[in-house]
């Protein structure tokens, strides 16, 4: 640092031309392609005049369904980015035997760090949060979430985080520390670049978004249920949503605080986690995993909920052992906070501590096992239709048990002394994250797509996608289990051990099969959009569903339900259908009322715009811009707080017109079912 | 480097526990997977022989069994974990023949330094030990975290700056093994693999004597050179000047190793990894 800062340094902070990686063609080209793509889409949107539509109907929308869809879109795009990282890593490890491969360490290390960060924070999280947003208010029979505008803020802040991570491809670098950025490696003295700052600020900003989403969904489930929807009548997905979001509310502040401490070390010379001056890395390990372990359950609990819905619907039966499932969910929610130490048995804590945390970790396997058995007995005596969502569900059950087995295995401290940080571990967590969360997200996507868009997805491509992904998963990750048993550790940019090589090659082939699965998924979307008229879902109930989201049209009107449904049992909509079939079909025209709905608001988008500026400026130490960005974000909130009209009225006549169409279709459905 | 081909008692016990735990779990996992596939197949909608029982949604007896099976398994495994954690505590003694060998391991960016305080020698990236003797490791790090791991000897353990962790191992058979760092530590991390030479207890003193004749001396000064980021292709050996060197490192009397040298002010520092290639 020169004594007197130059004008450039004041204006641009650390930013200069050397931040653009002209010497590294791969990220530059990748980034360039992405940028060109975004630009092309933007130009197309503007030229075609879609901008007003996008702005009014999506960007400023506070409709939980639209926000849910945008979350899922973000997750899908980031899945492609994270997937490209995975492909690059698998190719590198397949060829980097006794050679440097094609990726130098400073590049490879960024890739696995970005891969992990993106997959967890910008794929898995937004996917499940998107599905919860889309479906939970419908299942609860309500018109919206508790805090619609806050919901939009949460989404846009998540998008900001994703944007910043991807910006690091072309401006500067990403962290080279792994997705948890352990100090002291992530401290300024060992990672002087902006990589860790990109990492930390992206997660700080998107972390606020996640927390907001969590508060919103907890409140929604606790406070906004329709008549008669008491806790023990809520669909399982609502329960797991509650559990998962309680975990978000409890755990994310820990992440925020931990990263804040790391940032204080890096920016202001504090010594929370430095080697010097009394800093303590073990503190970081404890804090980050006190968030990190609950995080994995934040992801997988909603997936459990999705599978509960899917298995019960496609077996044509109510969920077996509903109360037991509720108990298991809440047990997981509580215990998941008491096991974090299993991530560092090898730190030398002593046998009592290790054993206690090992056993606590195994105890989580009990409620999880119970869930598997309850799904199993839901299928027992059922009439199972193997539509695509059900394929994902059965694939999940088989795969997840194996992941659970290896998970319990690494919770046995003496076994973990051999397996910690190995490829075996990498295989374990992909086994549960892909086999659990990703399969769950795909099942939910296939299952609820007709609800969101009004037409089904093509079954043939869907099934192809399942089989390729399923087999690709095993071909990719079983070799990693083997490599782990052969002593291979994770994050190896190259290696000289001949026995590892064949397994890395098989894993690369598996990755190719997996990629075909993803391509099939994309094809499915394309084909289905083309054939949407043939695939149209007029009834709003394409799967013979059991919960309230199927009681309204597909896609649902903005207000979801013309009347708050009256719930009398566990499978609310199923009971209604039975009742309707038994009663006469002549319905009197109900008396419609005006409905008030929240107005659209650009608050979320504008706030995220300023947050992006602030984040970028913080990363590059451009202080005047930091001030500008934070003032802007603050001003947005003030303006929002001072708003006068926050709701608009949908007149009764309009509600009636929309609802009549829906009722008509439904009567036809019921009378047809009655005729059979 | 097969974990199931242990070369010492710790690794043998680790892998026994590993294999036993897997079999205990397979005993319930395999039937469960089988049941999932069987139920899914039998109760397919097109099978007219399967009885449709939409009312079968609760059974106290099934619930009992369903909670009991995983609970019993976990009780069994919990016992394994409790006993195993105590018997295989990394700091627990591993008695061997002859007198124990004390080794002080330091992870550096990106190499391993092994100090033999009693023999007054030190080596980099090779660990030479006598077969059958207890090996008492004290470990620390000069800079960032690493993990010391010799797969076929068992139990890994972290190395952290300013702290000392302990690990006791024993190598039973003469031969060559491989060790590594099992915790990512930066650009040179994959080059932290090291050789482990297990030699006969009779030739160990000879090896010590030969090594002690090395010209190179390990003292604060040469240690600080070693501490610079970079990859060590050779396998240097040293005479140890002061057997307290490890304590000076572990207590931070010698300050932690420096990170990369900054090339430009902008985001991307020059990394030690470059010169490695
Ligand atoms: C599409 C198939 C996938 C493949 C082939 C794949 C491959 C990999 C590879 C090669 C690594 C690095 C291993 C090493 O460090 O040596 C890795 C790490 C990781 N992956 Fe994946 N991955 C995939 C999908 C996912 C998904 C869906 C998620 C999460 C939702 C995920 C989460 C992670 C995490 C958290 C890490 C650890 C990152 C780190 O070590 O810093 N992966 N993956
Ligand atoms: Cu955990
Ligand atoms: Cu874990």
Describe this structure in words.
The complex is a heterodimer of chains A (676) and B (277). Chain A is mainly α and 676 residues long. Chain A has 21 helices and 2 strands. With 277 residues, chain B is α+β, with helices and mostly antiparallel strands. Chain B is elongated. Mean pLDDT of chain B is 88; it is low at 263-277. At the A-B interface, helix 5, helix 9, helix 10, helix 11 and helix 12 of A face helix 1, helix 2, strand 7, strand 9 and helix 6 of B. The structure holds protoporphyrin IX containing FE and copper (II) ion (2 copies). The site of protoporphyrin IX containing FE has 26 residues of chain A, from helix 4, helix 5, helix 14 and helix 16.
TL;DR of this structure?
Chain A is mainly α.
Annotated CATH homologous superfamily of chain A: Cytochrome c oxidase-like, subunit I domain
CATH topology of chain A: Cytochrome C Oxidase, Chain A
Which range best describes the helical content of chain A: under 10%, 10-25%, 25-40%, 40-55%, 55-70% or over 70%?
Answer: 55-70%
Largest sheet of chain B: 7 strands, mixed
Which CATH class of the largest domain in chain B is shown? Mainly Beta
Overall shape of chain A: globular
Number of strands of chain B: 12
Mean pLDDT of chain A: 90
């Amino acid at each position: 640092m020169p004594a007197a800062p130059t004008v450039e340094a004041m204006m641009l902070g650390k930013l200069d031309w050397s931040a653009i990686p002209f010497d590294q063609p791969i990220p530059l080209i990748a980034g360039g392609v992405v940028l060109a793509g975004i630009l092309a889409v933007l130009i197309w949107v503007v030229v075609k005049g879609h901008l007003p539509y996008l702005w009014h109907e999506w960007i400023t929308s506070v409709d939980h369904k639209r926000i849910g869809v945008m979350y899922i879109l973000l997750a899908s795009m980031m899945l492609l980015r994270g997937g490209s990282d995975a492909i690059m890593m698998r190719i590198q490890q397949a060829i980097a035997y006794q050679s440097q491969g094609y990726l130098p360490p400073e590049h490879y290390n960024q890739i696995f760090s970005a891969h992990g960060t993106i997959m967890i924070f910008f794929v898995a999280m937004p996917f499940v949060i998107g599905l919860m947003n889309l479906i939970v208010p419908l299942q609860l029979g309500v018109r919206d979430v508790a805090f619609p505008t806050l919901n939009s803020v949460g989404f846009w802040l998540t998008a900001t985080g994703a944007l910043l991570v991807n910006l690091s491809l072309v401006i500067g670098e990403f962290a080279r520390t792994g997705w948890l950025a352990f100090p002291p490696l992530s401290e300024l003295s060992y990672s002087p670049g902006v990589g860790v700052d990109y990492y930390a600020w992206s997660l700080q900003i998107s972390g606020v978004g996640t927390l907001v989403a969590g508060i919103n969904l907890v409140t929604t489930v606790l406070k906004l249920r329709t008549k008669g929807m008491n806790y023990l009548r809520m669909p399982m997905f609502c329960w797991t949503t509650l559990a998962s979001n309680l975990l978000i509310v409890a755990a994310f502040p820990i992440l925020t605080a931990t990263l804040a401490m790391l940032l204080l070390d890096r920016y202001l010379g504090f010594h929370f986690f430095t080697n010097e001056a009394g800093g303590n890395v073990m503190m970081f390990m404890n804090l980050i995993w006190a968030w990190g372990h609950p995080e994995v359950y934040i992801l997988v609990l909603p997936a459990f909920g999705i599978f509960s819905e899917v298995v019960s619907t496609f077996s044509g039966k109510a969920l077996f052992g509903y109360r037991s499932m509720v108990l298991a969910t809440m047990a997981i929610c509580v215990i998941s906070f008491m096991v974090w130490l299993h991530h560092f048995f090898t730190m030398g804590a002593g046998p009592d501590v290790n054993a206690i945390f090992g056993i606590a970790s195994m105890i989580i396997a009990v409620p999880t096992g119970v869930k598997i058995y309850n799904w199993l007995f839901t299928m027992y005596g059922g009439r199972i239709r193997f539509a695509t969502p059900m394929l994902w569900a059965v694939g999940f059950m088989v795969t997840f048990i194996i992941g659970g087995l290896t998970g319990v295995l690494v919770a046995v401290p003496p076994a973990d002394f051999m397996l910690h940080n190995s490829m075996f571990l990498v295989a374990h967590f992909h086994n549960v994250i892909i086999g659990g969360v990703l399969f769950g997200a795909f099942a939910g996507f296939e299952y609820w797509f007709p609800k969101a868009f009004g037409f089904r997805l093509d079954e043939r491509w869907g099934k192809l996608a399942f089989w390729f992904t399923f087999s690709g998963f095993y071909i990719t990750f079983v070799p990693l289990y083997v490599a782990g048993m052969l002593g291979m550790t994770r994050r190896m940019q190259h290696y000289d051990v001949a026995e590892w090589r064949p397994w890395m090659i098989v894993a690369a082939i598996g990755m190719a099969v997996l990629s075909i699965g993803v391509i099939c998924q994309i094809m499915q979307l394309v084909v289905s959009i083309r054939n949407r008229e043939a695939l149209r879902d007029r009834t709003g109930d394409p799967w013979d569903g059991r919960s309230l989201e199927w009681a309204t049209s597909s896609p649902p009107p903005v207000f979801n339900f013309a009347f708050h449904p009256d719930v009398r049992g566990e499978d609310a909509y199923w009971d209604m259908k039975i009742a309707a079939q038994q009663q006469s079909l002549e319905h009197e025209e109900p008396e419609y009322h005006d409905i008030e709905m929240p107005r659209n608001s650009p608050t979320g988008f504008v706030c995220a715009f300023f947050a992006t500026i602030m984040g970028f400026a913080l990363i590059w130490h451009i202080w005047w811009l930091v001030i500008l960005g934070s003032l802007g974000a603050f001003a947005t909130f003030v303006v929002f707080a001072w708003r006068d009209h926050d709701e608009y009225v949908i007149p009764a006549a309009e509600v009636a017109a929309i609802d009549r169409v829906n009722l008509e279709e439904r009567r036809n459905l019921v009378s047809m079912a009655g005729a059979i | 480097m097969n974990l199931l081909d242990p070369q010492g008692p710790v690794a043998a016990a680790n892998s026994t526990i590993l294999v036993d735990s897997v079999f205990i779990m397979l005993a319930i996992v395999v039937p469960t997977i089988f049941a999932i596939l069987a139920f899914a197949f039998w109760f397919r909608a097109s099978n007219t022989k399967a009885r449709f029982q939409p009312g079968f949604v609760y059974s106290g007896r099934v619930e009992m069994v369903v909670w009991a099976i995983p609970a019993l398994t976990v009780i069994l495994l919990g016992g394994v974990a409790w006993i195993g954690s105590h018997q295989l505590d990394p700091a627990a003694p591993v008695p061997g023949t002859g007198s124990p060998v004390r080794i002080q391991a330091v992870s550096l960016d990106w190499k391993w330094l092994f100090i033999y305080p009693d023999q007054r020698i030190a080596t980099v990236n090779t660990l030479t030990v006598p077969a059958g003797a207890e090996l008492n490791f004290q470990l620390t790090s000069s800079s960032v975290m690493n993990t010391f791991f010799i797969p076929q000897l068992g139990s890994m353990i972290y190395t952290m700056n300013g702290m000392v962790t302990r690990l006791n191992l024993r190598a039973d058979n003469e031969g060559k093994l491989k060790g590594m760092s099992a915790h990512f530590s930066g650009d040179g991390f994959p080059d932290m693999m090291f050789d482990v030479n297990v030699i006969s207890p009779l030739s160990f003193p000879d090896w010590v004597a030969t090594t002690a004749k090395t010209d190179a001396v390990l003292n604060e000064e040469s240690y600080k050179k070693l501490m610079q980021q970079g990859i060590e292709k050779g396998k240097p050996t040293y005479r140890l000047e002061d057997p307290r060197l490890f304590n000076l490192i572990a207590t931070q009397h010698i300050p932690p190793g420096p990170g990369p040298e900054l090339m430009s002010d902008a985001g991307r520092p020059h990394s030690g990894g470059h010169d490695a290639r």
